[in-house]
Amino acid sequence: MILVTGAGGEIGQSLIAALAERGEELLAVDLRPLPNDTAALCAETITADICSAELHAQLRRKPIRTIFHLAAILSSQAEREPELAHRVNVEGTLLLLQTAHYLGKQHRAPVLFLFPSSIAVYGLPSREEKLRVGKVSEEQFLTPMTIYGASKLYCELLGQYYARYYRRLADEVESGWIDFRALRFPGLLSAFTRPTGGTSDYAPEMVHAAAEGKPYDCFVTPDTWLPFMAMPDAIRALLLLATAPAERLRRTAYNVTAFSVSAATIAELVAELFPGAQIQFRPDPRRQAIVDTWPADIDDSAARSDWDWAPEYDLQRTFTEYLAPNIARRYRLDC
Ligand code: NAD
Ligand code: AKB
After folding, report:
1. What contacts 32, CB < 8 A, 6 or more positions away?
2. Mean pLDDT, residues 304-316
3. Which ligand is nearest to the CA of 155?
4. Could you tell me the distance, in angstroms and rounded to a whole number, from the CA of residue 133 to the centre of ligand 2?
5. Residues with Cβ < 8 Å from 69, sequence gap 6 or more?
6. Nearest Cα to 327, choosing from 205, 215, 187?
7. Closest residue by CA, ligand 1 atom 28
8. Quick one: which of 193, 272, 186 has its CA closest to 225?
9. Cα of 1 to ligand 1 centre, how many Å?
10. CA-to-CA distance for 111 and 64, rounded, in angstroms?
11. Which ligand is in closest contact with the Cα of 182?
12. Which atom of ligand 1 is nearest to the CA of 7?
C-alpha cells in the first residue's frame, strides 16, 4: 500500500492519477476532503491533520510500504503563519518519520519515504548575486530566509538522520529502516489545478487568469527569473526517484529542473496563447523579496547522472503541448 499525504493538493491529485494508472493500492490523507475524481482512485481516504495522534495510530495499522509526504504549508502562506508552518512542515514530518520507522519494524522491511523539497532551501544574498551566479548546486547557498525554506532544509536533514541512525543499528537493519529520498522542485505549472499559498504561483496564476479571461496583477517584476517545470515532469521525477536502485544514489536530496524563465517571458507566452490576456506588473515587496533569494536556475546534473533524470517538457513544449490543449479543455476554450 502507498500512502500519499497532502493528496488533495496540486501534486497530490496528479500523483494519485499516475499511481492509480500503475494499479497501486492507495491510501490518501489530507486536511480537506479530496475532490471526488481523486478519491475514487484510492482504496481509502482519511481526512485528518498530519499532526493528529489519532491519524498516526490509524496509519500504524496499515500495510504501508511507500510514503509520498506532500502535506505542507507553502511559502507565502508560511510567511503569514510561521508557527502553523513549523507545526505542519516540521512536526508533521517528524511524526510521519516516526510512523514510517514503526511500520518498517513491523513489516521487517525498509519503508520508502519520498519528500518533495524546494528551491526555497536556497537563500541568495541579493538580486545581483542571484543573477551573477546562475545555476546553483545542491551544496551552495543553503541559507533560506523563509520559514518554509528553513523547514524544507531541516526536514531533508531530519530524513537523512532517521535513515542513517536506524541503519547504523545492526538489529534495526534486520527489522527495517527508512529509505529517505528528497527532491528539490522548482516552481510547478499545472494545467488542471491552481496553486494556493506559494510564491512561484505568479507563473501558473498568469496562465489560469488569462484562460478565464480575467485580468491579472503579477506580484513580481518582469525581470524576475526562476526555474520551473511542467507538472507531468514533476510526477515523472518523483516516480523515477522512487524506483531508482539505492546503490546508485549518492545523495538524499537532489535538484531537479526543466527550464529557467523570466516573468516577462511567461507573460509574452501567455499573451500568445490567449491574445486578450490582461497582465500588469504590480510587484509586492514581500513576495518579491522571497523570490529574489531563490536561485534563477539550479544544477540538476547529479539527478541526471545518478537516476537518469531528464525533463520531457522544455519551455516551448510546456506551453504548446501541455498547457494550451489541457487548459483549453479545462476551460472549454478554442486555442
Ligand atoms: P498544495 O498546497 O497544493 O497541497 C498541499 C496539501 O497539503 C493541500 O491539499 C493541503 O490541504 C494539505 N495540508 C496542508 N496542511 C495539512 C495538514 N496539517 N494535514 C494534512 N494535510 C495538510 O501544494 P503542492 O503544490 O501540491 O505541494 C505538495 C508538496 O510539494 C509540498 O510539500 C510542497 O512544499 C512541495 N513543493 C511544491 C512545489 C510547487 O510549485 N507546487 C514546489 C516545490 C515543492
Ligand atoms: C512555493 O512557491 O512555495 C512553492 C515552491 C517553489 O516550493 N511553489
Report:
1. 8, 47
2. 98
3. 1
4. 21
5. 5, 6, 93, 96, 113, 114, 115, 116
6. 205
7. 70
8. 186
9. 21
10. 8
11. 1
12. 9
Question: To test ligand 1's pocket by mutation, which of 15, 29, 30 has the most ligand atoms within 8 angstroms of CB?
Answer: 30
Place of cell 505568479: 202
Residues 249 and 241: their CA atoms lie apart, in Å, by 9
pTM score, two decimals?
0.97
- Residue 322 is a catalytic residue: no
Q: What is the pLDDT of residues 241-295, one digit of tens each?
A: 999 999 999 999 999 999 999 999 999 999 999 999 999 999 999 999 999 999 9
What the block records as the C-alpha cell of 233 is 515532469
Q: Which helix (H) or strand (E) holds 225?
A: strand 225-230
CA of 240 to the centre of ligand 1 (A): 20
Q: Where are the domains of the chain?
A: 72-334
* Residue carrying the nine cell digits 522491511: 109
Rounded CA-CA distance 167/179 in Å is: 9
pLDDT in tens, 11-68: 999 999 999 999 999 999 999 999 999 999 999 999 999 999 999 999 999 999 999 9
Most ligand 1 atoms within 8 A of CB, residue of 31, 94, 207 to mutate? 31
Fold exhibited by the domain 72-334: Rossmann fold (3.40.50)
Phi, psi for 295 (deg, rounded to 5) = -65, 150
> Cα 168 vs. chain centroid, distance in angstroms?
29
Q: What is the pLDDT of residue 331?
A: 78
Distant-in-sequence, close-in-space partners of 246: CB < 8 Å, separation ≥ 6: 179
pLDDT in the model for residue 297: 98
d(CA 111, CA 321) in angstroms, rounded, equals 36
Vertex 125 angle, CA 121 and 126, to 5°: 120
